[in-house]
Each structure stands twice: as C-alpha cells, then as structure tokens.
Amino acid sequence: MVQQQALRDFARAMAAFFDPENPAGRPSWRKAGRAEGFRVVAVKPSEVRRLSHRVGEIWVPKVGWVRFRWSRAVPLGVKSYRVTMDRAGRWHVAFAAIPEPIPAPGNGKVVGIDRGVTVSAALSTGELLCVPSLTARERKRLRRMERRLARAKRGSNRRGRMKLLIARLKARETDRRKDWAEKASTDLARRFDIVRVEDLNLRGMTRSARGNAEAPGRNVRQKAGLNREIMRSGWGLLVRRLEDKAPDRVEKINPAFTSQRCNVCGHVDAKSRKSQARFACTACGFACNADVNAARNIAAGHAVTARGGDEITRPVNREPQLLRQLA
C-alpha cells in the first residue's frame, strides 16, 4: 500500500509539472534524513481512537497499533494521514484535513502589518510582535556544537551525534516560530476584517549574493546573515497562515515609500527615518516608531494593491506648501 501510494503521488506531481496552468516545479529527488515517511489512505474511523487526555492510538498497516501524543482533536471524515520523521529524530503523524476559515468579526477594522528583522511584525495599532528565538544560552551551545561538527570526520559516529544534537536545537527554534505564527495569525483574523501586508518578493530578498567566477558578489557574508535573519522572522509563514485562516481578507500593498512617508502629513523624505526604530517627519515634526509609521501607511493603502484595484498614489512632498503657508 505504501509503495503504491508513493507511485501515485509521484505521478500526480509529474502531471502538475507538465500542466501549463499549474505553477508547480519539477519533483526533486528525496534526500536521506529529510521528510522521511510514508502516507496511508483509506483510513477508517475505527482505526483512530483516543486512550486518554493526551494519548491516542492509530492502526498502521503491517505494524499494528501505534501510540501518539494527542495534541489536538482529529477532524471528522479524515481519509488519509502521513507518518514522517524530521531531522531531529522525532516522528509525527499528520491527518489530511482542511480546517474551516475564521469568520470575520464584522467590525470594519483594518490593520496594516510591517515586517522587519528587529521587530518581526509591527501593527498599525502600535503593537510590536517579535518571534521567540533561541536564548543566549542556547545560541552559545549551538555555536559550540557547530565547532565540534566542523572538526569531526565525515562519516564518523561523532559527526552523526553532533548533527542530531544541532538538529534538535534548531527544531526547538522552528517550533517556537511556528507556534508564534499560528497564534498571531489567529488573533489577527479574529480581531480585524481586513489585513494589509507588504507585497514582498521574499525569494529574491533572500537570494545569495555570492555571484559567480566572472562576476563575484560583494558583502556576501553580510547578505547571508541578513538572509538568515529574514527567514528566522517568519515573514512568509505569517502571511501564508493569514491567507489560509482569513481568505479574501488579506490585501498585499506595494511597499514603495511606506517607510519614508509620514502617515500624518504624507511628506516623503528618506531623512525622516532617523534610525531603525525612530521616525521623525522633516516637514511636520511628527515622531513615532518607524515600523509603526510604516504599518499605518500600509493600513491606509497608499500604494498599489497586488490586485491592481487601487490607483497609484505618487509620493507627495508637502514641504514647499508648508513653507509658503509659514511665509
């Protein structure tokens, strides 16, 4: 059953790749240690049962009853599940089900979200959301294990143990980021009718600056560090979960001039951004957190939406008007 299902999944992936209307890419080769697992279909309701408050049991063909941690209720009508093992050596069972979207509160509120590295998500309401990452003690331990991994001989048992320890520590950071994204997206979907975010090309923003032999890149190490921080901030995960939980209520705004525009007078000046966290308008003197100011511009929808429904709003320089009024 498992081998037949793997062939069916591969055939479906190849059909999607050759479909001109489907943006799916070519199926990649499986790598050992990554996404290890199998999928089982035609699941009967009697094959999943709950033993206690935190323990459940599932019938796996040719294996028998296997216990798992009951982290959430199993949706009714599930017909398949997938058993996987991650790089940290943890086994997971995931049931295939599409949850219902979160209904809109109906209060007409609009929120803008500005995503950054220091502050993962700044809301137009003034709230600053930060992704929980590894503690200072855990980062020190991670650096020590990475040094040991670099000195270990390839293929040795010591290198395998170090890779497993590093994977477990990084899996802890990934779990915290996913938990933050789930809770933050659920809270935003329940509180606001419209959620507006920047239309960012994350794939291009996190692309390596290494270049090639003919045209080598510049500041490669600095760009690599920035790429890691962007991916640790969970920018794409937050928006993806928002689109799943609040379909047709997430609007993507062109990010042009959102960090340089004053949300009070509309004056655009790069010098208004005094630092990473401080914004002080050079025209009207309004000052606030720079990320909150950008989030308010996003909430107002000053730029072009990704759907192309709004008009283009050009940057407005009101400094000459203010000087004439003062004169």
Distance from N terminus to C terminus (CA atoms, Å) equals 83 Å
Report strand order across the widest sheet: 9-8-7-10-11
Radius of gyration: 25 Å
Instruction: Tell how many strands the DSSP assignment holds.
Output: 13
Estimate what percentage of residues fall within beta strands.
15-25%
The string of secondary-structure elements, in order, is HEEEEEEEEEHHEHHHEEEHH
Sheet of most strands: 5 strands, mixed
Assembly state: single chain
The total number of structural domains is 2
Low-pLDDT sequence parts: 303-327
Overall pLDDT level: 87
Descriptive report:
By secondary structure, the protein is an alpha+beta fold. The chain has two domains: 2-95, no CATH class; 110-253, no CATH class. It is 35% helix and 18% strand. It has helices at residues 2-18, 136-151, 157-191, 202-205, 220-232, 235-245, 290-300, 319-326, and strands at 36-41, 48-50, 55-60, 64-69, 80-85, 91-95, 110-115, 121-123, 128-129, 194-198, 250-253, 278-280, 287-289. The strands form four sheets. The chain has a five-stranded mixed beta sheet with strand order 9-8-7-10-11. The chain has a three-stranded antiparallel beta sheet with strand order 1-5-6. Strands 2-3-4 form a three-stranded antiparallel beta sheet, with no helix packed on it. Strand 12 and strand 13 form a beta hairpin. Helix 3 packs across helix 6. The longest helix is centred in the middle third of the chain and has 35 residues, at 157-191. It is globular.
